[in-house]
Protein 1
Amino acid sequence: MKLIIALIQPTKLEAVKEALSRVEVFRLTVMDVQGFGRQKGYTEVYRGHEVTVNLLRKIELQIAVNEDFVEPTVNAILEAGRSGPDGKIFILPLDDCIRIRTGERGPEAI
């Protein structure tokens, strides 16, 4: 089992969700996050003062998958989420998973 964490541009969320549906990945968690990376932010004028905005809005997806779904999931995110200079995919080992409703554990719980 793996936990896939992907940071994408907010404008790419719908395309990524559609691509994941095509590879039969339907369960994911979506979070609105802010981050600072290579883009280094931008400067804007607010009430006559120049303000540097260096935390940019991103979307974080968390997707727990069994081994067979790792590559299709990653490829779907790459295909639909490719944009600009930033965005990341992290693949982490997932030691265990427990479905609260039934108590199932491991790959069956995903």
Note: The helical segments are 13-22, 70-81.
Protein 2
Amino acid sequence: MNESGFALFDTAIGRCAIAWGERGLLGVQLPEGDTARTRARMRRRFPAARESSPPADVRRAIEGIVALIAGEAIDFSAVALDMEGLPAFHRRVYEVARAISCGATLTYGDIAKRLGVPGEAREVGEALGKNPFPIIVPCHRVLAAGGKLGGFSAPGGVATKRRLLAIEGARATTGPDLFDRMAAVK
């Protein structure tokens, strides 16, 4: 990857965008409702990036995002992320979240425990709420206590989170199917 850039691309849930720089991906943007708003969001988030054709490694990441949203189980662990400038705690949270396999879920508390800070589930949620790499860092796979969906800061909010989990056929890491549990909570 050379200079920073961004590109828009179509998925089954709408037009997404991706930005890259010399050290890896800078961010992923889920659909904003229409192309103009998605493009405007990318220009605000990455003012130094110009819209351009993505390099090969970014094209592979785009192909993976498109495939995942179409229902394929995709592993993004090889995708380079530029986390320079992000708080150290956020980076640690994102690394744990990245390890959640397609169709599985963890809770904010599970991640806090894995980080050795069991009382910081709320802080984990705050870090995930600022995740600049949705899908690549699958924050949609992280639930609140008791199997509740919790929040989702991407466009569409919890409805988008529910849709992504449904596409993946999400199952809790332990216990009954996520959607069985959601129905029981209603």
Note: The helical segments are 35-45, 56-69, 88-98, 108-114, 121-129, 157-168, 178-185.
Protein 3
Amino acid sequence: MRGAATLEKPWFAQWPADVPRSLTYPDIPVQELLRRTAKEHGDRPAVSFYGKTLTYRDLDAAVDRFASGLRTIGIGAGDRVSLLLPNTPHFIVAFFAVLRAGGIVVQTNPILTPR
């Protein structure tokens, strides 16, 4: 192979014209994305689950409360926190709270069974 390597993306042939082919992401921590979204779009739905809706503002507030609790029990920068939760709003809150407290999320599959 000569020259610059190219990666063909055959799906672009069917790509809608109004959808960008790439995105530019800000150089900020993931948990800051939630904070900024809550400030800009606080009343918009962030999570819908079994007929209940949580706005970005409510989600951000729940994350702050949980992060504060984690800090109170000693979770801080670089601490690994295992989350053994199903795919529910509780996981979303816990995930962002661990990051906001400075920890590192270790995701654990709650339905994983020994072979």
Note: The two ends are 43 Å apart (CA to CA).
